[in-house]
Design goal:
By secondary structure, the chain is an alpha+beta fold. It has helices at about 1-15, 20-30, 35-55, 55-75, 85-120, 140-145, 150-175, 175-180, 185-230, 230-245, 245-265, 305-315, 325-335, 345-365, and strands at about 15, 230, 275, 280-285, 295-300, 320. Helix 4 (about 55-75) packs antiparallel against helix 5 (about 85-120). Its main location: membrane.
Length: about 375
């Protein structure tokens, strides 16, 4: 018996259920979102090398102009090494560096922000930055260091190094002839060839990183869903928090039914007639032409409630008319406080006419 209870508790604590929308929203507010940093890194690196490839001629001419200014005009020219001239040289170099790096920096920034936005959306959360004393626990730190997540990160890093190293090695071996011939070429040609080889290496490495980033995204998605999974008990507890405890809700419904029943019973003395089944159903109907366009049901009930309706009607001298079919139809189709539907006007009007005729006859007999 004890074993079966423990197994049941273990099954309830096992996280097998998908995360609810409320759990996902709470996790997002705490900064726990699906995001692959590999996508940001790979696309940023690839974009940087593509931009370098497209602007390589511009960068080359800019560097040549800067070198010409520094060596030909400044160092070999008539410029004196005064503080003013050195400041002017420094400002020129800074301006040239900014002109060269600003497009690259802007592209990298836009790519990084766009990748994060496409993965996460607009999210501002300070909770991940809040200090937690649990992070200072050395035991938890060691467990996290040797956890399966860290092992997978190490495995991914090794795969990344191996694939990128393999691609770069294959490319360099194919360019060995060109590399060995650099000694025989002019400096400008050598710089152009080295720049081209470097750009090709970057583009190939970036392409490999993009491929690995796509795989990493699906892995991160799997891990994210796994972390968000809930146990059956957690789902039950959340349902109680959102919908309320079933026991409390049952008591509230019971209280509401008692209040509505009390109000209904208070309306019975205002009725003109009670239509019965005769034992199972009782419907109290009131007709007030100055208030309603048609007769209205002020109370209805079945079995014990029907008996209470008839008892109150008898105490207040309200006539009761037996009409099995009409009583059943009114009970099934008309709610308390609703007007009689047009298709039942004739039947209810007949009952009310009978009651008014009966009241008139009783009044004449009373006068005699």
């Amino acid at each position: 018996m004890e074993w079966s209870i423990n197994l049941q508790l273990f099954a309830e604590d096992e996280k097998t259920e998908k995360a609810t929308p409320r759990k996902r929203k709470k996790a997002r507010e705490e900064g726990q979102v699906l995001q692959s940093r590999e996508i940001n890194t790979s696309l940023t690196l690839l974009a940087a090398f593509v931009l370098l490839f497209l602007l390589s001629s511009h960068y080359g001419s800019t560097m040549m102009n800067v070198s010409h200014y520094v060596f030909d005009e400044f160092m070999l020219g008539d410029h004196l090494f005064t503080i003013k001239n050195i400041q002017a040289l420094t400002l020129t170099l800074i301006a040239a560096i900014l002109i060269m790096t600003m497009p690259l920096a802007l592209v990298v920034l836009v790519i990084g922000v766009t990748c994060s936005f496409l993965q996460v959306g607009f999210l501002i959360s300070s909770k991940p930055l809040q200090p937690k004393l649990s992070k200072l626990n050395p035991i938890k730190g060691l467990k996290k260091l040797f956890s399966l997540e860290k092992v997978m990160e190490l495995f991914k890093s090794l795969i990344k190094i191996f694939l990128i190293g393999f691609v770069i090695f294959r490319y360099i071996t194919s360019q060995l002839g060109t590399i060995f011939s650099l000694m025989e070429r002019e400096i400008e040609q050598s710089i152009a060839i080295v720049s081209q080889i470097t750009l090709n290496i970057g583009l190939r490495a970036g392409a490999v990183l993009v491929l690995l980033a796509v795989l990493d995204y699906y892995y991160q998605k799997y891990e994210h869903e796994k972390k968000l999974k809930m146990s059956k008990q957690e789902v039950k507890d959340e349902h109680k928090q959102v919908e309320g405890d079933p026991k409390i809700k049952s008591k509230i419904r019971q209280k509401q039914m008692q209040i509505s029943m009390r109000r209904m019973m208070q309306e019975i003395p205002k009725a003109d007639v009670v239509i019965t089944n005769p034992t199972h159903y009782a419907i109290a109907v009131r007709y007030a032409p100055e208030q309603y366009a048609a007769p209205v049901v002020v109370a209805k009930g079945q079995n014990l409630v029907a008996q209470n309706i008839k008892k109150i009607a008898e105490e207040h001298g309200i006539p009761m008319v037996e009409n099995r079919a009409l009583a059943r139809v009114l009970y099934d189709t008309v709610e308390i406080g609703d007007l009689i539907p047009p298709d039942l006007y004739e039947a209810v009007a007949g009952v009310l006419a009978y009651v008014y005729q009966l009241d008139s006859k009783q009044m004449k007999e009373a006068r005699r």
